[in-house]
Amino acid sequence: MSIRDVAIVGTSMTKFGRSNKTELEMFAEAALDSIYNSDIEPKNIEELYLGNCAGAINEGQVNMCAHAAEEIGLHQIPSTTFEGACASSAVAFIHAYREVAAGYNDTVLVAGTERNMTLRPTGWATRVFQCSADQRYTQFTGLTFPGIFAMAANRYMKKYDISKEAGEEALACVSVKNHHNGALNPKAHLQKEITIDTVLQSPKVADPLKLYDCCPFSDGAAALVLTSAEKAKKLTDTPIYVAGVGQSSQGSLCTQSDITYPIGRAVSSKKAYKQAKIEPKDIDIAEVHDCFTSAEIIAIEALGLFERGHGWKAEKEGETAVDGKLPINTSGGLKAKGHPIGATGCAQIHEIVEQLRGDAGKRQVNKVEVGLADNMGGEFGTITTIILRR
Amino acid sequence: MEKRNFRHPQIFHSTEKFWLGLRDRKFLVQRCKNCEEIFFPPRSHCPKCLYNEMDWVELSGKGTLYSWSEIHIPSRNFDVPYVIGIIDLEEGVGRMVSKIRARVEDLRIDMPMKIDYEDAEEDLTLYVWMPAQS
Question: Where is the ChsH2 rubredoxin-like zinc ribbon domain (chain B) (predicted)?
Answer without folding.
Answer: 21-49
